[in-house]
Specification:
heterodimer, A: elongated
Protein backbone atom coordinates (compact mmCIF):
# COMPACT_ATOMS: atom_id res chain seq x y z
CA UNK A 1 0.00 0.00 0.00
CA UNK A 2 2.82 2.38 0.89
CA UNK A 3 4.48 1.64 -2.43
CA UNK A 4 1.21 2.47 -4.20
CA UNK A 5 1.03 5.78 -2.35
CA UNK A 6 4.66 6.45 -3.23
CA UNK A 7 4.01 5.82 -6.92
CA UNK A 8 0.92 8.01 -6.74
CA UNK A 9 2.91 10.75 -4.99
CA UNK A 10 5.63 10.61 -7.59
CA UNK A 11 3.09 10.86 -10.40
CA UNK A 12 1.37 13.82 -8.76
CA UNK A 13 4.73 15.49 -8.19
CA UNK A 14 5.72 14.82 -11.77
CA UNK A 15 2.57 16.36 -13.23
CA UNK A 16 2.26 19.30 -10.88
CA UNK A 17 5.91 20.28 -10.60
CA UNK A 18 8.15 21.13 -7.67
CA UNK A 19 5.66 23.36 -5.89
CA UNK A 20 3.60 20.31 -5.10
CA UNK A 21 6.18 19.41 -2.45
CA UNK A 22 5.29 22.60 -0.65
CA UNK A 23 1.58 21.93 -0.97
CA UNK A 24 1.89 18.40 0.34
CA UNK A 25 4.06 19.57 3.24
CA UNK A 26 1.46 22.21 4.10
CA UNK A 27 -1.23 19.55 4.01
CA UNK A 28 0.93 17.28 6.13
CA UNK A 29 1.53 20.10 8.62
CA UNK A 30 -2.21 20.58 8.98
CA UNK A 31 -2.76 16.87 9.39
CA UNK A 32 0.02 16.40 11.93
CA UNK A 33 -1.20 19.37 13.93
CA UNK A 34 -4.72 18.01 13.87
CA UNK A 35 -3.51 14.54 14.83
CA UNK A 36 -1.71 16.03 17.82
CA UNK A 37 -5.13 16.76 19.28
CA UNK A 38 -5.18 13.17 20.44
CA UNK A 39 -2.22 13.80 22.72
CA UNK A 40 -1.77 17.49 23.33
CA UNK B 1 3.61 17.40 37.44
CA UNK B 2 2.77 18.34 33.90
CA UNK B 3 0.11 20.75 32.74
CA UNK B 4 -2.67 20.28 30.23
CA UNK B 5 -3.27 22.96 27.60
CA UNK B 6 -4.63 26.13 29.16
CA UNK B 7 -8.19 25.48 28.13
CA UNK B 8 -10.07 23.65 30.83
CA UNK B 9 -9.98 22.45 34.40
CA UNK B 10 -7.74 24.56 36.55
CA UNK B 11 -7.39 26.97 33.66
CA UNK B 12 -11.04 28.02 33.78
CA UNK B 13 -9.96 31.46 34.85
CA UNK B 14 -7.88 31.71 31.70
CA UNK B 15 -10.71 30.57 29.48
CA UNK B 16 -13.16 32.88 31.13
CA UNK B 17 -11.09 35.83 30.04
CA UNK B 18 -10.51 34.29 26.58
CA UNK B 19 -6.96 35.57 26.57
CA UNK B 20 -5.66 32.08 27.28
CA UNK B 21 -6.78 30.32 24.09
CA UNK B 22 -6.09 33.35 21.91
CA UNK B 23 -2.55 33.83 23.14
CA UNK B 24 -2.05 30.08 23.03
CA UNK B 25 -2.84 30.06 19.30
CA UNK B 26 -0.83 33.23 18.74
CA UNK B 27 2.20 31.71 20.46
CA UNK B 28 1.98 28.48 18.47
CA UNK B 29 1.70 30.28 15.13
CA UNK B 30 4.40 32.86 15.82
CA UNK B 31 6.84 30.23 17.11
CA UNK B 32 6.10 28.03 14.08
CA UNK B 33 6.62 30.92 11.68
CA UNK B 34 9.93 31.93 13.22
CA UNK B 35 11.22 28.38 13.59
CA UNK B 36 10.18 27.40 10.06
CA UNK B 37 11.56 30.65 8.66
CA UNK B 38 14.88 29.98 10.37
CA UNK B 39 14.98 26.47 8.94
CA UNK B 40 14.15 27.85 5.51
CA UNK B 41 16.98 30.37 5.88
CA UNK B 42 19.38 27.53 6.73
CA UNK B 43 18.17 25.77 3.61
CA UNK B 44 19.27 28.75 1.52
CA UNK B 45 22.89 27.96 2.32
CA UNK B 46 24.69 26.20 -0.55
CA UNK B 47 23.95 22.49 -0.70
CA UNK B 48 21.86 22.40 2.47
CA UNK B 49 18.49 22.18 0.68
CA UNK B 50 19.55 19.05 -1.20
CA UNK B 51 20.76 17.39 1.99
CA UNK B 52 17.46 18.39 3.59
CA UNK B 53 15.49 16.87 0.71
CA UNK B 54 17.44 13.61 0.92
CA UNK B 55 16.87 13.58 4.68
CA UNK B 56 13.15 14.11 4.10
CA UNK B 57 13.02 10.98 1.97
CA UNK B 58 14.92 8.95 4.59
CA UNK B 59 12.70 10.17 7.41
CA UNK B 60 9.57 9.45 5.37
CA UNK B 61 10.72 5.84 5.16
CA UNK B 62 11.08 5.87 8.96
CA UNK B 63 7.52 7.21 9.26
CA UNK B 64 6.24 4.44 7.02
CA UNK B 65 8.07 1.89 9.18
CA UNK B 66 6.31 3.11 12.30
CA UNK B 67 3.74 0.60 13.50
CA UNK B 68 5.80 -2.20 11.98
CA UNK B 69 8.35 -4.41 13.71
CA UNK B 70 11.12 -2.46 11.97
CA UNK B 71 10.12 0.78 13.66
CA UNK B 72 12.90 3.02 14.96
CA UNK B 73 12.02 5.38 17.76
CA UNK B 74 12.15 9.06 16.85
CA UNK B 75 14.44 11.42 18.77
CA UNK B 76 12.39 12.46 21.74
CA UNK B 77 12.32 14.54 24.87
CA UNK B 78 10.39 13.67 27.97
CA UNK B 79 10.17 17.30 28.99
CA UNK B 80 6.72 18.80 29.29
CA UNK B 81 5.51 22.20 30.31
CA UNK B 82 5.75 22.29 34.12
CA UNK B 83 2.49 22.82 35.88
CA UNK B 84 3.86 25.49 38.18
CA UNK B 85 4.45 27.75 35.19
CA UNK B 86 0.77 28.59 35.49
CA UNK B 87 1.91 30.88 38.29
CA UNK B 88 3.64 33.11 35.75
CA UNK B 89 0.26 34.58 34.85
CA UNK B 90 -2.33 33.55 32.30
CA UNK B 91 -1.03 35.63 29.43
CA UNK B 92 2.59 34.56 29.71
CA UNK B 93 1.71 30.94 30.46
CA UNK B 94 -0.60 30.61 27.47
CA UNK B 95 1.83 32.35 25.16
CA UNK B 96 4.82 30.27 26.21
CA UNK B 97 2.75 27.08 26.19
CA UNK B 98 1.61 27.81 22.65
CA UNK B 99 5.12 28.69 21.52
CA UNK B 100 6.54 25.46 22.86
CA UNK B 101 3.84 23.38 21.17
CA UNK B 102 4.22 25.34 17.94
CA UNK B 103 7.88 24.34 17.75
CA UNK B 104 6.80 20.70 17.55
CA UNK B 105 9.92 19.24 19.15
CA UNK B 106 10.12 21.08 22.46
CA UNK B 107 7.84 18.61 24.21
CA UNK B 108 7.19 14.89 23.79
CA UNK B 109 7.67 13.69 20.20
CA UNK B 110 5.76 10.53 19.35
CA UNK B 111 6.46 10.23 15.64
CA UNK B 112 9.04 10.94 12.98
CA UNK B 113 6.41 12.97 11.12
CA UNK B 114 7.33 16.28 12.71
CA UNK B 115 10.89 15.78 11.47
CA UNK B 116 9.54 15.46 7.93
CA UNK B 117 8.02 18.91 8.33
CA UNK B 118 11.15 20.47 9.82
CA UNK B 119 13.48 18.93 7.25
CA UNK B 120 10.95 19.80 4.57
CA UNK B 121 11.18 23.43 5.69
CA UNK B 122 14.96 23.22 5.25
CA UNK B 123 14.59 21.49 1.88
CA UNK B 124 12.32 24.27 0.62
CA UNK B 125 15.31 26.59 0.84
CA UNK B 126 13.22 29.69 1.40
CA UNK B 127 12.26 31.67 4.48
CA UNK B 128 8.62 32.15 3.49
CA UNK B 129 8.16 28.54 2.40
CA UNK B 130 9.72 27.21 5.61
CA UNK B 131 7.75 29.62 7.76
CA UNK B 132 4.49 28.67 6.08
CA UNK B 133 5.04 24.95 6.70
CA UNK B 134 5.88 25.10 10.41
CA UNK B 135 3.48 28.01 10.93
CA UNK B 136 0.69 25.88 9.44
CA UNK B 137 1.63 23.13 11.86
CA UNK B 138 1.45 25.54 14.81
CA UNK B 139 -1.92 26.86 13.67
CA UNK B 140 -3.34 23.39 13.07
CA UNK B 141 -2.07 22.19 16.41
CA UNK B 142 -3.41 25.07 18.47
CA UNK B 143 -6.50 26.30 16.65
CA UNK B 144 -8.74 23.24 17.13
CA UNK B 145 -8.24 23.54 20.85
CA UNK B 146 -10.26 26.71 20.66
CA UNK B 147 -13.19 24.40 19.97
CA UNK B 148 -13.06 23.10 23.49
CA UNK B 149 -12.09 26.39 25.08
CA UNK B 150 -15.71 27.30 25.71
CA UNK B 151 -16.41 24.04 27.52
CA UNK B 152 -17.20 25.08 31.05
CA UNK B 153 -17.81 21.48 32.13
CA UNK B 154 -14.17 20.46 32.01
CA UNK B 155 -12.74 19.51 35.32
CA UNK B 156 -9.37 18.51 36.61
CA UNK B 157 -8.55 15.39 38.59
CA UNK B 158 -6.29 15.39 41.64
CA UNK B 159 -3.68 13.76 39.39
CA UNK B 160 -3.64 16.94 37.33
CA UNK B 161 -5.26 15.36 34.27
CA UNK B 162 -8.18 17.19 32.77
CA UNK B 163 -10.02 14.14 31.54
CA UNK B 164 -13.08 15.74 30.02
CA UNK B 165 -11.13 18.22 27.95
CA UNK B 166 -8.82 15.47 26.76
CA UNK B 167 -11.76 13.25 25.81
CA UNK B 168 -13.31 16.10 23.85
CA UNK B 169 -10.05 16.79 22.04
CA UNK B 170 -9.75 13.13 21.04
CA UNK B 171 -13.36 13.12 19.88
CA UNK B 172 -12.74 16.15 17.66
CA UNK B 173 -9.51 14.65 16.33
CA UNK B 174 -11.32 11.64 14.88
CA UNK B 175 -10.44 7.96 14.69
CA UNK B 176 -6.68 7.30 14.98
CA UNK B 177 -6.72 4.67 12.23
CA UNK B 178 -8.15 7.07 9.67
CA UNK B 179 -5.68 9.79 10.69
CA UNK B 180 -2.82 7.35 10.29
CA UNK B 181 -3.89 6.39 6.78
CA UNK B 182 -4.35 10.01 5.79
CA UNK B 183 -0.89 10.75 7.15
CA UNK B 184 0.65 7.87 5.22
CA UNK B 185 -1.06 9.04 2.04
CA UNK B 186 0.00 12.66 2.34
CA UNK B 187 3.50 11.86 3.49
CA UNK B 188 4.17 9.56 0.58
CA UNK B 189 2.89 12.24 -1.78
CA UNK B 190 5.41 14.60 -0.15
CA UNK B 191 8.14 11.98 -0.54
CA UNK B 192 7.24 11.30 -4.14
CA UNK B 193 7.26 14.95 -5.09
CA UNK B 194 10.52 15.49 -3.18
CA UNK B 195 12.12 12.66 -5.16
CA UNK B 196 10.74 14.14 -8.36
CA UNK B 197 12.34 17.45 -7.46
CA UNK B 198 15.65 15.83 -6.54
CA UNK B 199 15.97 13.98 -9.83
CA UNK B 200 14.42 16.75 -11.90
CA UNK B 201 11.71 14.58 -13.45
Amino acid sequence: MSVAFGVLGSMVGFFLGGDWTHYSLLLLAALVGWKALRSP
Amino acid sequence: MIATPPLGGAAKRIRAHTTGPATFVLGAVVAGLFFGGSLGAVGKLPGVAIVGALSVVVVIVLVLLEHTRFAIRAPNTRWQVPRHWVGAGRFRFSLVFGMLLGLGVATIVKSWTIYVLLLGAVAQGGILAGASIVGAFGLARAMPMMLVAADSTAHILPSGEDTRTMAKLRCIAGPPGLLRWLEVGVITCAGGSTLSGLFGI
